[in-house]
Amino acid sequence: MKALLLENVHPLAVDLLTEAGYEVETRSGAMDEDELIAALDGVSLLGIRSKTEVTDRVLQAAPELQAIGAFCIGTNQIDLLSAAGRGVVVFNAPFSNTRSVVELVIAEIIMLARRLTEKDTALHNGVWDKQATGSHEIRGRKLGIVGYGNIGSQLSVVAEALGLQVFFYDTDDKLALGNAQRCSSLNELLDNAEVVSLHVDGRPGNAGFFGAEQFARMRPRSLFLNLCRGFVVDYQALADNLRSGHVAGAAVDVFPDEPKSRGDAFGSPLQGIPNVILTPHIGGSTEEAQEDIGRFVATKLRDYLGLGTTTLSVNLPSLSLPQRPGDRRIVHFHVNSPGVLAKINGLLGDHGVNIEGQVLNTLGQNGYVVTDVAKLPEHLIEELSAMPETIRLRVL
Ligand SMILES: NC(=O)c1ccc[n+]([C@@H]2O[C@H](COP(=O)([O-])OP(=O)(O)OC[C@H]3O[C@@H](n4cnc5c(N)ncnc54)[C@H](O)[C@@H]3O)[C@@H](O)[C@H]2O)c1
Q1: Which of 106, 208, 255, 295 is the most exposed place for a label (fewest CB within 10 A)?
Q2: Contact 238/216 with Cβ under 8 angstroms?
């Protein structure tokens, strides 16, 4: 089977898929719709990063495509519903760069507490500004983490190891790690924290979630970090609070309108304000994260094609079933409607086939069932394929 990997996917992914028996073709750049349609002829696995759009038209023109690996975090570039409706499984790498973001947050908290960017700029300009005033240790400081998911909870652990006292607020009920203290509201967190770090997800409801009211509620002279999504913060309000001195420093990695390419012009109300660290959305951009993304997504693609495992798929029901040697495996995507499993099992029974193992899961409009059998009588697969609810069927 053929795999096509675009956009300089990490070489580890090429090695893993080659080892698994795929003929792997790589291209360094992204492709437009027409190029992609032509290139997908005969391709079972497609690997992309953020710049290749996989539209409904592309999916319609690529009936042999079984799975797509987004070798990145976001999957907005893929028409997930169209892919699901065609039984094309999509995987991404949701936590390969978690540690990279956490390390940058920790570094920036220390840099802000020591006003390092100011010292650095002064010395580059020939000014020897040796003084302790306004420089602080972070040990014992109160860190407020907003959003206690993959990144927030990992930050909690590393920050505690450095002696910070952690408070967190999450809209979901989350396990408090170590000595971290849960806050029942954002205001409770803002009343306590001396450093506020945002790690919420990009759901539309979070647009403008942190603005003038929340900055005003922060403790005077506290620090603010946003390495999650640009549109969740009102940066004009942050700039006003930095200039007034209410917020003592800020680190910002994400912006509502980010330039498309390296070298493009960039503007923000935060530019030129002392003790503000601005970075071009590089929180998760490390070589280690890229390698882990390559490993993570390639392994998911390999296990889906080889075993039917869809664990952590972003668009189709997630499941896995251990396989016994010698069994044949039927993987079946279908429209999620009542009675499909009964129909499948009825056909198996009609052919005198015993089910050795079976697992079903559903997600929205889609159902997925993996069935292990000891024998595959003639016509069984044709009959299962002919069921009106069948979207895609493979035998492994
Ligand atoms: N700067 C970068 O390079 C970079 C890299 C990776 C991830 N990110 C961003 O970091 C953010 C966090 O990533 P993650 O992997 O931890 O995500 P996650 O989905 O694991 O965690 C997000 C958490 O935020 C919580 N949440 C959502 N809205 C909230 C709200 N209004 N108030 C309180 N809690 C809320 C959710 O319940 C969840 O626990 C995402 O926005 C992601 O896009 C940025």
Answers
A1: 208
A2: no
CA 37 → CA 2, 45, 56, distances in Å?
15, 13, 11
pLDDT digits (tens, 9 = 90+) for 121-147: 999 999 999 999 999 999 999 999 999
Distance of CA 355 to the CA centre of its chain: 36
**CA R_g for the chain:** 25
**What span, in angstroms and rounded, lies between the C-alpha atoms of 360 and 372?**
12
Q: Which of 249, 235, 227, 219 is nearest to 118 (CA)?
A: 249
Q: 63-67 — which CB contacts under 8 Å span 24+ positions?
A: 64/40, 65/40, 66/304, 66/305, 66/392, 66/394, 67/91, 67/301, 67/304, 67/305
Alpha carbon of 148 to ligand 1 centroid (Å)? 8
Ligand 1 centre from 283 Cα, in Å?
Answer: 13
258 is catalytic: yes
Digit-coded pLDDT (tens) for 18-29: 999 999 999 998
- Other CB atoms within a 10 A radius of the CB of residue 361 amount to 16
**Contact, 87 vs 321, CB < 8 A?**
no
Mean pLDDT of the chain: 96
